[in-house]
Design brief:
14 helices, mainly alpha, 370 residues, two-stranded antiparallel ribbon, globular
Length: 370
């Protein structure tokens, strides 16, 4: 009992440090280039307007960012600002933030606070998950690393989409892992809901679809009691596919809810058609992101400027920006996993990060390590 108390105290202390550091950063930082746009997106949603400003973004982050600022008095309706009629989100954001005499420091702090609270939930979930898998010491160690990670601290104190994607990605993978172990109705519903949040957090959430399927497949293999060999693998694949298919209605419903159950025409460029679809803004954002990836993005890397992208961009950024202690711990963890032959058992911990890194490296969209 005393051990449990000290474990919870250690985790709570780490999360409190994370929150305090985040508050200090949120108060000290001036607005970044993207934050006025994201803040405007949030106010658009809470004012009950449409999704015309979403473009390449999904709205979950904007619901969170806009919640507290929307409670402020004397905020102008966004649909009365320059740029609304022409869907020029930059013009609308500029007019809202810089041309209406608002308390900018307060406004951005309120927007950042929602993301910072989300950071606390993510840290608590991470500590719980690691505790379930590696014991109380492991959970406390995970909370400590989380609390002092510079990349996490940097983005948890900003009103942008990146930390929401991190938290939702983590939660969805946890949901898959839990379902793979228990296969209960409650675990299935939870996994479906968390998958929906991951899909609504950022377009990279689509990577959760193959990740979830693979985690459930491995879970079926580990719990297999049927035939061995190819027949056993086929049976495990079939059952995993069925498990995953049962998650999709709940996930789709969550995404549709976040888009306020909107329904309407959506252009589908690969088919050359416009179809009536639920959450049409989601499909529009998806195809815009795909066009952005295909067109590349102008970036700077190791003395070069280009828009074609570099396969080593994110790998180098990760090695340079990750604390040396964390890198050494990762190497030690990989060594222990290999020595104990736990690659399949630990799949939920390394597969999502590995697949995300592989996809980002293959993509031509080199827009920073987040």
């Amino acid at each position: 009992m005393r051990t449990l108390f000290y474990h919870r105290l250690a985790v709570a202390g780490c999360l409190l440090v994370f929150f305090w550091l985040g508050i200090e950063a949120a108060l000290a930082k001036s607005p970044t280039a993207d934050e006025p746009v994201h803040l405007t997106h949030g106010l658009v949603l809470w004012q009950g307007l449409d999704f015309r400003f979403q473009e390449e973004h999904t709205p979950l982050s904007h619901w969170i960012i806009g919640l507290l600022p929307a409670l402020e008095r004397d905020l102008p309706p966004v649909d009365t600002l320059p740029g609304w009629a022409t869907a020029d989100r930059l013009a609308a954001a500029r007019a809202l933030v810089w041309e209406r005499g608002l308390d900018v420091t307060r406004l951005f702090f309120l927007g950042r606070l929602g993301i910072l609270w989300l950071g606390l939930l993510a840290g608590a979930l991470l500590a719980r998950w690691v505790t379930e898998r590696a014991g109380r010491f492991g959970g406390a160690a995970a909370a400590l690393l989380f609390a002092f990670d510079p990349n996490l601290l940097a983005h948890a104190a900003l009103a942008t989409t990146d930390f929401t994607a991190t938290a939702a990605f983590l939660a969805a993978v946890y949901g898959f892992s839990r379902l793979a172990r228990t296969r209960s109705l409650a675990a299935g519903i939870l996994a479906g809901v968390l998958l929906g949040l991951g899909l609504a957090a950022k377009m990279t959430g689509l990577l959760l679809l193959p990740i979830g399927l693979l985690i459930l497949f491995v879970g079926r293999i580990q719990a297999r009691r049927g035939p061995a060999g190819f027949a056993g693998l086929a049976q495990a694949a079939w059952r995993a596919g069925l498990d995953f298919a049962l998650l999709l209605p709940a996930a789709g419903l969550v995404v549709w809810l976040i888009y306020r159950f909107s329904f309407g025409p959506a252009a589908v460029p690969p088919l050359g058609l416009t179809l009536p679809l639920p959450a049409p803004a989601y499909w529009g954002s998806l195809f815009r992101v795909n066009a952005h990836i295909e067109g590349g993005h102008r970036a700077f890397f190791l003395g070069e400027i280009g828009s074609e992208g570099w396969w080593s961009y994110f790998l180098v950024a990760f090695l340079v920006k990750t604390p040396l202690a964390t890198l050494l711990l990762l190497l030690a963890a990989a060594g222990l996993t290999a020595r104990r032959r736990r690659w399949l058992a630990d799949l939920p911990f390394w597969l999502p990060a590995g697949l995300l890194l592989a996809f980002a490296s293959y993509s031509r969209l080199n827009i920073g390590y987040r």
